[in-house]
Amino acid sequence: MILGLIPSRLGSTRLKKKPLLEINGLPIIIHTLKRAKLSKRLTKIIVCTDSKEIMDMVKKHGGDCVITSKKHNNGTERINEVAKKYNPKLVIDIQGDEPLLDPTHIDKVISHHQKNTHYDIILPNLKFKASKSENIVKVVSDKNDKVLYLSRSQIPFPFKVKPKFYKKHLSIISFKPKALKKFCSFKQSELEKIEGIELMRALENNIQIGTFSLNSNTFSVDIKDDYLRAIKAFKKDKFRNAY
To answer: What is the extent of the structural domain holding 24?
Structure first.
């Protein structure tokens, strides 16, 4: 069983009630859910939320949803609460704020993890040009694609040589179930608190994260500019007619 879990909360601070904002006739969370359902590799898909409003919307559109605790610090903790009720081979964390999610990427992440089982977590990346935006999490990896660090800062910093490209954190993450449980057994780490990046907790506790590059135009809706950009992008979206 390969379990797809979509964490979603209503209390986003940068964009009020973000999951329920409509784009092209549907709320953001429903776009994410319906596109995840286009994956060929996921056995089951569940939205994990602390909001009855989100649950009601998901059920209205025929999706599975579970109400979780309001005490979780992040989406990874939220999906762990639900994952414990199953016995999956892999748990795929699909961020609920990606209305332009490419379902083929889910399948590629799953396939990559199944071929690279020495990693506890697989975090795909997108190569992109320089950006100083703090809303974009950058990935630094070694020559074997092991993740070394994650940051909202511009890393690696072009002090002597300008990098050919940077790597952007993509919001489909594959966990071995034991790694997910282990992650949640630790308290929030110092670098996690400083950077506001939950997977720093994994790195600080020696949980092995691998990465690989995908070609993608997808992006998270974090702020109003992202929302307006997503509305525009849907005019040319190739998956919208599939649902």
So the answer is: 2-242
